[in-house]
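Next comes a concrete protein, fold included:
___
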Amino acid sequence: MLGKLIKVEDLRTVWKHEALDFTKWLSKSENLALLGDEIGIEMNLIEREASIGNFSVDILAEEENTGRKIIIENQLEITDHDHLGKLITYASGYDAEIIIWVVKEVREEHRQAIDWLNEHTDEKLNFFIVKLELWRIDDSPCAVKFQVVSRPNDWTKSIRQSTIKSNLTETKLLQLEFWKQFKEFVTAKGTTLKLRKALPQNWYDMSYGVSGANIVLTINTQSKLIGCEIYMPDSKELFHSLWDKRSYEWV
């Protein structure tokens, strides 16, 4: 016989006070590990309620093995402008590279704001919104579920443990520098292409406003070749539409 899975709507049935109860709970190593597993990083606590001027960030942590600073701001309610402003204040104060906003509910305007920050801020910055939920089976104790709502576009394609630049091979460093300069060049020229962050790999993909397809650039450092293709994983109609418009003229 199977039990019934029930969502606990009121988070404050478990954590009465945001700072005194939830932040204290989340700062424990086993609970930071739960959050880290959902995002894809390993975190170590530095300080709870770490001061920054007249304010204090809920949790200041660092990524294991890299030492990148992490700030976590908690909100047991729906997102608001006040907490969004705090995130940016804390990130600048601690020069954090990973910024996490743990919330009960997400307003669409704030999700769009976090997506915008990921697209337009320095490449080393990574913003996340993580939704917090409580579930139980029948009358069992509650269980926590974290769900990432917003993250950097290229996060899932990057290595789980971020590699320090000094540990990259000469080829990877060359690839990283190539894509950085490519992005700077295209941005300076003005473009409608949706450019992603540069990564130390032999390919770079970008959206050009057509659903179901994207542009993929490749570099081969050994053969000294550069490639450009349109990738369409599952769209025969789009392929034939482009094929009919093909040109044999060479420049």
